[in-house]
Amino acid sequence: MPPPPSKPKGPTRGVPLGQDDDEPTKIEPRRLGLPKPPARSRGDGFDTSDVPTNPGRPVFDKPRGNPGMPSLSGETTSPGSPAFTGVAPEVRQSRWHDRSAAPRGVLPAEAVLKGLDEALQKAGQARVPVGPVREQLKADWLPLLRQVVEQAGGDGMDAYVTQLLSPPGRQAVTPLVDALASGMERLEAATDAETLRARAQELRVLVARTLEDAAPSPISLELQERELDGRVDVDTLLSIRFASSAELATRRARAEKTLEDLRQQMRALQGVQPDGLFSNFARVKVEKRVMDAEARRRGGR
Q1: How high is the pLDDT of residue 42?
Q2: Where is the region Disordered (predicted)?
Q3: pLDDT digits (tens, 9 = 90+) for 276-291
Q4: CA–CA dist 204, 145 (Å, integer)
Q5: For the chain, what is the radius of gyration of the CA atoms?
Q6: Which of 45, 145, 210, 270 is 20 to 30 A from 136 via CA?
Q7: Helix axes 275-297 and 156-165, enclosed angle (nearest 10)
Q8: Which of 142, 53, 66, 143 shows the shortest CA–CA distance to 107?
Q9: pLDDT (tens digit per residue) in 190-212
């Protein structure tokens, strides 16, 4: 019996992110239009998909211990925790997806705000320099801010994709992602603990006001799916957008090393179909290209 056909290596639609695997990682500017915004509704009928693990994951990707808070994988960590109100939208399962995992739950507004407040309280009690306090606060807040974007992000993620792939890109009709990113930049600029807490409180007010909207704008992931082949998830894009310049540089270097390690492993398996290795390689390569584009968007190299 002949062996099964090999999996396609990637899309061939002419998208710059579908270049040959050994070519330099760069994104050429081109014109992208935003898809039509989805209708505003409060429904919970979100598509479910997978939660990937990325070798290029940022250092502040997980909250570090809020006892009693529900986990973001769909399970609560203690009795009496708020029930989930739906399933988080995620990059849809596409032709190039080869991973699956349990969908994440949607936290109600009061649970999101409680998590933000607990992280702020912990930051206020810390007796360490402002740098580590900020890092811890970002670690605790990132999954919660992702929840807010997923619940009320509108076309913000699609607009960000156009800014990366077709600079200067388009401005979002729903400015939540840009507003959160601006707040995070002010957080990064804080030089003392008091200023850090004040900037964090401003972000908390923005989140509370967003969650009070009775008819939030549902998030669109159309360009994220179409232009990034469904390989970069909401949390990864937000972590790149919210990263400091130093964090971004560290992640880019780590991703480049991961790519080289995976290249060596695939070359050592000549004659064998390294499907799992290629999947990791393709995912990290797209993420690296996104980080490179973000560095250029900021005026770096």
Answers
A1: 38
A2: 1-102
A3: 788 889 999 999 999 9
A4: 10
A5: 20
A6: 210
A7: 80
A8: 143
A9: 999 999 999 999 999 999 999 99
Q: Are 33 and 109 contacting, i.e. CB atoms less than 8 angstroms apart?
A: no
The whole-model pTM stands at 0.72
Length of the chain counted residue by residue: 301
Alpha helices in 7-127 (DSSP H): 109-125
Of 247, 262, 209, 235, residue with least CA distance to 55: 262
**pLDDT bucket at 3, cuts 50 / 70 / 90:** low
Pair 197, 120: CB distance under 8 Å: yes
Q: Is the dihedral of CA 85, 204, 298, 162 positive or negative?
A: positive
Q: What is the distance between the alpha carbons of residues 91 and 81, in angstroms, rounded to a whole number? A: 27
Q: Which residue has the tokens 């232009």?
A: 227
Tell me if 72 sits within 8 A of 39, measured CB to CB.
no
Residues 6+ apart with CB under 8 A from 193: 123, 124, 126, 130, 133
Classify 296 in phi/psi space as left (phi over 0), alpha (psi -120 to 50) or beta: alpha
| C-alpha atoms less than 13 angstroms from C-alpha of 125 in its C-beta half-sphere | 6
pLDDT tens by residue, 228-278: 988 888 999 999 999 999 999 999 999 999 999 999 998 888 777 777 788
Note the maximum CA span of the chain. 70
Task: Round to whole Å and give the CA distance between 196 and 19.
Answer: 42
